[in-house]
Every structure is written in structure tokens, then in C-alpha cells.
Design goal:
61% of the residues lie in helices and 0% in strands. The two termini are 26 Å apart. Helix 1 packs antiparallel against helix 2, helix 1 crosses helix 6 and helix 4 packs antiparallel against helix 5. It is mainly α. The chain is elongated and about 65 Å long. The model has no long low-confidence stretch (mean pLDDT 90).
Length: 153
């Protein structure tokens, strides 16, 4: 088996996550460019730990600096439920006033909810720090995740 961390990182992204080979360049950002996040990213780190023994303890503490978590947060639930109700109410009222068929009301409600979610995420979401393919290979080569997130490239 190959002992080159950069080869293993590429292999995990291409074969394990289905990322097109042409996209997996040293400067490609794992989340931002390749779309690997949450549990999928966790699988990569687990495989690298098993293969190379890399200590990812610090990454566990810094996870939300670099990646999103799976599932909905309590904040998202508390905001999401009223947002769904408001979007449905607005869409229903507008469809009733304009005498639209109910299918249009459903479509409008979904469009309002998705569009509102996108605007909310763009306005209040946090910018995640990037991790590049080459940066991850360097971390594996070093044997442990840095204690300072600023040292991750």
C-alpha cells in the first residue's frame, strides 16, 4: 500500500466520495470546492487515522471552524418551523386573493421557504475556514491536526 499521504487523500476523495479526479488538485478546498462535508468528511479523517495513525483530536474541537454538522441545530428548528408556517400562510393567502389553483400555492410556499433559507444563510451564516487537499496531506504527514486553526491551510 502507498505510504504517500497525498496519494491516499486523493484516493479517498475520488474513490470514496466520488469526486471527479480532475477536481482533486492540491489547492482544491475539500468543503468549498469538492463539496465534502459532515459525515463524508468524517469518513475521510477516520480512514486517514486508521491508515497513518494521524491524531485528529484537535479537529474534533475545531470541527465547526472547518465543516458543518449533520442534521438541524436547535436554532434552525426554532427558526425553521415558524418560517415554514409563515411561508405557507403567505403563499395560501396570495393564492386565495389571486384565485390561483392550490398547486401554485404549494409551489410558491416552497419557493418562499427555499429562497428565504438561502437569504438567511447568506446573511447570518458563518464563513467556514477552508482546508485544501495539500493541507490535509501535510497534516497527515505531520501526524496530528494543529492546535491552532490558523495553521491549517
Amino acid at each position: 500500500m502507498n505510504d504517500d499521504p497525498s496519494v491516499m487523500v486523493r484516493k479517498l476523495l475520488i474513490e470514496g466520495q466520488g469526486v471527479p479526479e480532475r477536481k482533486v488538485t492540491p489547492g482544491a478546498r475539500i468543503l468549498h470546492d469538492l463539496g465534502v462535508d459532515g459525515d463524508d468528511a468524517g469518513e475521510i479523517f477516520e480512514a486517514l487515522h486508521e491508515r497513518f495513525g494521524t491524531d485528529f483530536t484537535e479537529l474534533n474541537r475545531q470541527w465547526r471552524v472547518f465543516f458543518n454538522t449533520e442534521g438541524a441545530s436547535p436554532r434552525a428548528i426554532l427558526i425553521g418551523i415558524p418560517a415554514i408556517l409563515a411561508c405557507g400562510g403567505v403563499a395560501g393567502a396570495l393564492a386565495a386573493v389571486l384565485h390561483w389553483p392550490s398547486i401554485f400555492a404549494w409551489g410558491l410556499a416552497v419557493a418562499l421557504f427555499v429562497g428565504g433559507g438561502w437569504l438567511f444563510a447568506r446573511s447570518f451564516g458563518r464563513e467556514l475556514q477552508p482546508l485544501t487537499v495539500a493541507g490535509l496531506a501535510e497534516i497527515v504527514q505531520a501526524g496530528r491536526w494543529p492546535s491552532d486553526p490558523a495553521d491549517v491551510r
